[in-house]
Amino acid sequence: MKLAILSRNGKLYSTRRLVEAARQRGHSVRVLDPLRCYMRIGSQGFALRYKGQSLAGYGAVIPRIGASITRYGNAVLHQFELMGCHTPNPSRAIAAARDKLRCHQLLAAQGIDMPVTVFGDNPDDTDDLLALLGEPPHVIKLTEGSQGRGVMLTEKPSASRSVVDALRGLYATFLMQEFIAEAGGSDIRCLVVGDEVVAAMRRQAPEGDFRANLHRGGSAEAVVLSAADAAVAVRAAKVLGLGVAGVDLVPSARGPLVLEVNASPGLEGIECSTGVDIAGRIIDFVTAEAAGAGMQSRKRVRRARAMKTEPCV
Ligand SMILES: Nc1ncnc2c1ncn2[C@@H]1O[C@H](COP(=O)(O)OP(=O)(O)OP(=O)(O)O)[C@@H](O)[C@H]1O
Ligand SMILES: [Mg+2]
Ligand SMILES: [Mg+2]
């Protein structure tokens, strides 16, 4: 199958591993920088081009779109989708996952448990908002942060208030959460591919921090998930519509809580700590889904033809 990986840098570990796994399995694969993809859109048809050439004939596209280019990268991915190309993570799902607020709303609506979360815009409402949240410590997060950046812990109401004031002054969008102290600075990253958690690692924050992210100096070890934890992770990915996702769980007194669902989870830390060929699992999943899309894919081709575009399949 002819595969495309949307990634800004072919040298990144996750991109390299996906290319390697695809080639090992006999697929042809090309890394496309989403910022070099450009489009002509019109009601009579589409054109999607890359460095002067038409992009066509791809059986599936695997998005690895960084947080800094979510909007443009998603527009490119959407174009592939409109042209009938299969993707495990559709642009709509990526947009929902990138926005922690929207992600929490969607998960909560399906009864998936998470830390109590509040958000509000007007400074006049801050006291009531903090009352809704309950006693500190509080975790305050930028809605579009990643790698633990923009995740803060406040121990007193006055600290929460001043962080909120500062963020409002910067026109940042954020949310506030109850701090799950029982987690003890650890979380569990579950790598979901389709209906399965293919690998999981427990991450532990370094001394003096509460954030377990490896980018913040956390350490990781492979962990065997309980069936209940695995089911929560798979459900969370499904609620968002992601075929491939990194779901962060924190253990709590009331059971596993979903912290967030990542649409482009890094593979390096989790492949190295678990030894699982996650890239291979992703390629197998994506190509099987793309090939097995059968009727659906034929329908997409017909629709694409009706719109005078070059179908990707
Ligand atoms: N409510 C909370 N209670 C306790 N710890 C938390 C809470 N929220 C976040 N943390 C800790 O902070 C870390 C970073 O938070 P979160 O996963 O929401 O941010 P992120 O920047 O999107 O991270 P990622 O790199 O995984 O995308 C978590 O892995 C967890 O260790
Ligand atoms: Mg995240
Ligand atoms: Mg996280």
From TrEMBL:
Biological process per Gene Ontology, one example term: translation
Domain called ATP-grasp: residue spans: 104-287
Cofactor note: Binds 2 magnesium or manganese ions per subunit.
GO function term, MF aspect, one: metal ion binding
PROSITE patterns cross-referenced by the UniProt entry: ATP_GRASP
Signal peptide: none
Keywords: ATP-binding, Ligase, Magnesium, Manganese, Metal-binding, Nucleotide-binding, Protein biosynthesis, Ribonucleoprotein, Ribosomal protein
Binding site residues for ATP: K141, E178, F179, D187, R211, A212, N213
EC class (word): ligase
InterPro entries per the UniProt record, alphabetical: ATP-grasp, ATP-grasp_RimK-type, ATP_grasp_subdomain_1, RimK, Rimk_N, Rp_bS6_RimK/Lys_biosynth_LsyX
Annotated residues for binding of Mn(2+) 2: E260, N262
Key word Nucleotidyltransferase present: no
GO CC annotation: cytoplasm; ribosome
Residues holding Mg(2+) 2: E260, N262
The protein's required cofactors: Mg(2+); Mn(2+)
Residues annotated to bind Mn(2+) 1: D248, E260
UniProt-listed Enzyme Commission number(s): 6.3.2.-
Pfam families the UniProt entry points to: RimK, Rimk_N
The keyword Ribonucleoprotein belongs to this UniProt entry's keyword annotation: yes
Recorded coiled-coil stretches: none
Domain of life the protein comes from: Bacteria
Annotated binding of Mg(2+) 1, by residue: D248, E260
HAMAP family recorded: RimK
Family the entry assigns: In the C-terminal section; belongs to the RimK family. Belongs to the RimK family.
Protein name: Probable alpha-L-glutamate ligase
Protein encoded by which gene: rimK
